[in-house]
């Protein structure tokens, strides 16, 4: 969700020059001491002047006042020159990062710049305070857990230069609602955006070649995902437990993956990767060419009531049909292997299969309701 920028901004006031000098007079303890000393001197001169006035020596009074003014001017300019020669303080994060902070009416926007190291680490980001962060092109990688559980974070812009988004880099950033990823990013690692429940859409740029397991899992408001033609590797199920995900679309020019009615499958239709959690369809027939039903591929797909698996399926991986409330599943293959916890916590599961099949034996051992084909 894009947010409108507030045009009413407070102007940033530089600490350089004469204006900065006047501002810093009230902030510097040493200058306060010097000015205090000058004040005492002024009081002393005033006292002397009072005594001289009694003697009506106007010439002496004028000389004394002129002398005081000259001394005051000299002291003032000595302090000013010392201020100009003093090194300016800059807010820093880590050893090599300088932070530029722009204060908006109701939010903070932070831009990192002048970076020498390649990996943005959690240690460094922990010192950042702001809802809106821009990561510039000095970095190559956003490190593991760099922004993990930053509930204050609302938007992120990743500029050109970043190549890798690390494991759990933005994990559990529940209020992160807008993220712009540059085309330079090639890898989105495991659980990189897991638990970002505020995300309603994500544009995976044409440049990403690898999306790893659980990269966008638990993104509760994510509705549609588009896989670009650049993606070559998808590990596990990057989109499981996205409760409102209705459809996954794959670019027609992608040489490695495709979609079947919104279901993510590899290009040769050998492995079914992800059936969208919120796909509103009561029935689904797995394509005849599919050999593997991937890990967590139908996780919590509670709209689905009847599923037919083709004879070609050789393996149903762990967690494939976990937490489905009610499902009738037909497994015609005799040698279809079912891995441990493939039907974990399926309350009302009925499996239809041959009495001679591996599936039948599995169901008997696991005490799953089974009916003969």
Can you tag this structure with a few keywords?
373 residues; Leucine-rich repeat, LRR (right-handed beta-alpha superhelix); Rossmann fold; 6-stranded mixed β-sheet; 6-stranded parallel β-sheet; rod-shaped
> Percent range for helical residues?
10-25%
CATH architecture designation of the largest domain: Alpha-Beta Horseshoe
Strand content: 15-25%
CATH level-4 homologous superfamily of the largest domain: Ribonuclease Inhibitor
Distance separating the two termini: 49 Å
Describe the largest sheet: 6 strands, mixed
Strands in their spatial order, largest beta sheet: 1-2-3-5-7-9
CATH topology of the largest domain: Leucine-rich repeat, LRR (right-handed beta-alpha superhelix)
Instruction: Name the shape in a single word.
Output: rod-shaped
Overall number of domains? 3
Q: What is the structural class?
A: alpha/beta
User: What would CATH call the class of the largest domain?
Assistant: Alpha Beta
* Poorly predicted parts: 1-16, 88-107
Q: What is the strand tally?
A: 26
Radius of gyration: 34 Å
How many helical stretches?
5
Q: Give the mean pLDDT.
A: 82
Protein architecture, described:
The protein has 373 residues and is of the alpha/beta class. The relative contact order is 0.05. Helix 2 packs antiparallel against helix 3 (58-85). Residues 1-16 and 88-107 have low confidence and may be disordered. It is built from five helices and 26 strands. Strands 1-2-3-5-7-9 form a six-stranded mixed sheet, with no helix packed on it. The protein has a six-stranded parallel sheet with strand order 4-6-8-10-12-14. It is rod-shaped. 20% of the residues lie in helices and 24% in strands. The protein folds into three domains: 17-85; 90-251, Ribonuclease Inhibitor (Leucine-rich repeat, LRR (right-handed beta-alpha superhelix), Alpha-Beta Horseshoe); 281-373, Rossmann fold, CATH 3.40.50.
């Amino acid at each position: 969700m894009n947010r409108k920028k507030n045009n009413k901004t407070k102007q940033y006031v530089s600490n350089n020059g004469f204006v900065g000098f006047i501002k810093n007079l009230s902030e510097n303890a040493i200058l306060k001491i010097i000015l205090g000393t000058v004040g005492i001197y002024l009081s002393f001169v005033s006292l002397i002047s009072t005594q001289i006035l009694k003697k009506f020596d106007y010439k002496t009074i004028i000389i004394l006042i002129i002398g005081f003014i000259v001394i005051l001017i000299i002291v003032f300019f000595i302090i000013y020159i010392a201020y100009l020669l003093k090194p300016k303080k800059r807010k820093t994060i880590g050893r090599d990062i300088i932070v530029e902070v722009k204060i908006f009416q109701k939010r903070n926007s932070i831009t990192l710049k002048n970076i020498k190291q390649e990996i943005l680490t959690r240690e460094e980001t922990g010192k950042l305070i702001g809802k809106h962060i821009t990561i510039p092109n000095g970095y190559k990688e956003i490190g593991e857990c760099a922004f993990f559980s930053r509930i204050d974070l609302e938007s992120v812009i990743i500029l050109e230069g970043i190549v890798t988004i690390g494991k759990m880099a933005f994990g559990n950033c529940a209020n992160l609602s807008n993220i712009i990823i540059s085309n330079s990013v090639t890898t989105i690692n495991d659980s990189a955006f897991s638990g970002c429940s505020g995300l309603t859409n994500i544009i995976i740029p044409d440049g990403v070649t690898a999306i790893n397991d659980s990269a966008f899992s638990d993104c509760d408001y994510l509705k549609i995902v588009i896989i670009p033609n650049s993606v070559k590797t998808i590990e596990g199920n990057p989109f499981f437990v996205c409760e409102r995900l209705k459809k996954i679309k794959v670019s027609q020019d992608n040489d490695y993956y495709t979609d079947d009615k919104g279901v993510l499958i590899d290009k040769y239709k050998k492995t079914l990767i992800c059936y969208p959690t919120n796909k509103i369809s009561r029935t689904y027939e797995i394509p005849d060419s599919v050999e593997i039903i991937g890990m967590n591929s139908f996780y919590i797909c509670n709209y689905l009531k009847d599923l037919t698996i083709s004879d070609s399926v050789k393996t149903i991986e762990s967690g494939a049909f976990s937490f489905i409330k009610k499902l009738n599943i037909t497994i015609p293959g005799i040698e279809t292997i079912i891995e441990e916890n493939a039907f974990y916590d399926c309350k009302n599961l009925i499996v239809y299969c041959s009495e001679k099949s591996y599936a039948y034996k599995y169901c008997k051992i696991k005490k799953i309701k089974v009916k003969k084909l």
